[in-house]
Amino acid sequence: MKNCGFIVAMVVVQFAYGGSNILIKIALERGLNQFVLIVYRHIIAMLLLAPPAYVLERKERPSLSVSVFGKIFLLSSLGTTIHLNVYYAGLAYTSPTVATALGNVIPSLTFVMAVLLRMEKVKIKSAKGGAKVLGTVICIGGSLVFTFWRGGFQSKGFVDRPLINIHSTNASHGEFRHENESWIKGSALFLVSYIAWSGWLILQATASKVYPAQLSLNVLICFIASLQSSVLALFFARNPLLWKLQWNVQLLTIIYSGVVLSALVYYLQTWCISNKGPVFAAMFTPLLLVFVALFSAIVFAERLHLGRQFTAISYFLTSVKKISPTK
């Protein structure tokens, strides 16, 4: 029954990420600075998680040694400062659907890292060991298939026109296009971002062992992430007007990112990783493709492609097989 809880938690995580991809794309196109977003969202999450962390984990919170702090600092650097800033930079060059399509390398990258660090055992000569290796190859190759093979249209889209116009386009037939779209730049940035995120998943498992107070761990991550991004903002977001908040989609995005992503989602991921391992958490990444494709079809009037949906489901099934324990 507890395993069902972990599965439900990770599905909720991917659904929340799906909504954030759409919101953040809109907010960034409308002028929200990515460094401002990262600073604000982690401050909100820190303030939200600090009270329950102090009360509930007062007795189980371990002392913060230099070694433990170093792990948490690196955790914040990989999962927030590097991953988010590079990801948001890549999002400026392409659509959320493409971003999440390339994200299917995350289960494979995490699996490879886990094997290299001896957190995951693989017996290549066994049937299940061979399936894990084959699944890794399929996931990496499948990311390319998902991105470049569109297949036939399932439909003309849920709506005839985008519900929200975030920029001027010459789009026709409901196909979402970007004027300054650069697939190579965007894809390269996403890959760097996903390498950092895979490292975060691996390090999260290690950090959870030396610092098992999960709420307090997330408070520290958010605190350090807000400081790191504030330093970057001194160079890239000096204009005071960038920090001024108004009642618009930018404010909604900041609140959603802080409350749902940096507070709730980070905690759920930490909980799942500490109990089931980093590969388990990574295997749910393909579901994000389905959610983003549906949200993009509704909000941006993107067409749904049979090729993309077919490979998204294949990714998830392959990942499930890949994490089966080797006997």
Automatic annotation (TrEMBL):
<feature type="transmembrane region" description="Helical">
    <location>
        <begin position="129"/>
        <end position="149"/>
    </location>
</feature>
<dbReference type="GO" id="GO:0016020">
    <property type="term" value="C:membrane"/>
</dbReference>
<dbReference type="InterPro" id="IPR030184">
    <property type="entry name" value="WAT1-related"/>
</dbReference>
<feature type="transmembrane region" description="Helical">
    <location>
        <begin position="68"/>
        <end position="90"/>
    </location>
</feature>
<feature type="transmembrane region" description="Helical">
    <location>
        <begin position="215"/>
        <end position="237"/>
    </location>
</feature>
<feature type="transmembrane region" description="Helical">
    <location>
        <begin position="249"/>
        <end position="268"/>
    </location>
</feature>
<dbReference type="GO" id="GO:0022857">
    <property type="term" value="F:transmembrane transporter activity"/>
</dbReference>
<dbReference type="InterPro" id="IPR000620">
    <property type="entry name" value="EamA_dom"/>
</dbReference>
<feature type="transmembrane region" description="Helical">
    <location>
        <begin position="183"/>
        <end position="203"/>
    </location>
</feature>
<keyword id="KW-0472">Membrane</keyword>
<feature type="transmembrane region" description="Helical">
    <location>
        <begin position="280"/>
        <end position="301"/>
    </location>
</feature>
<protein>
    <recommendedName>
        <fullName>WAT1-related protein</fullName>
    </recommendedName>
</protein>
<dbReference type="Pfam" id="PF00892">
    <property type="entry name" value="EamA"/>
</dbReference>
<feature type="domain" description="EamA">
    <location>
        <begin position="185"/>
        <end position="307"/>
    </location>
</feature>
<dbReference type="InterPro" id="IPR037185">
    <property type="entry name" value="EmrE-like"/>
</dbReference>
<feature type="transmembrane region" description="Helical">
    <location>
        <begin position="96"/>
        <end position="117"/>
    </location>
</feature>
<feature type="domain" description="EamA">
    <location>
        <begin position="7"/>
        <end position="145"/>
    </location>
</feature>
<keyword id="KW-0812">Transmembrane</keyword>
<comment type="similarity">
    <text>Belongs to the drug/metabolite transporter (DMT) superfamily. Plant drug/metabolite exporter (P-DME) (TC 2.A.7.4) family.</text>
</comment>
<keyword id="KW-1133">Transmembrane helix</keyword>
<feature type="transmembrane region" description="Helical">
    <location>
        <begin position="34"/>
        <end position="56"/>
    </location>
</feature>
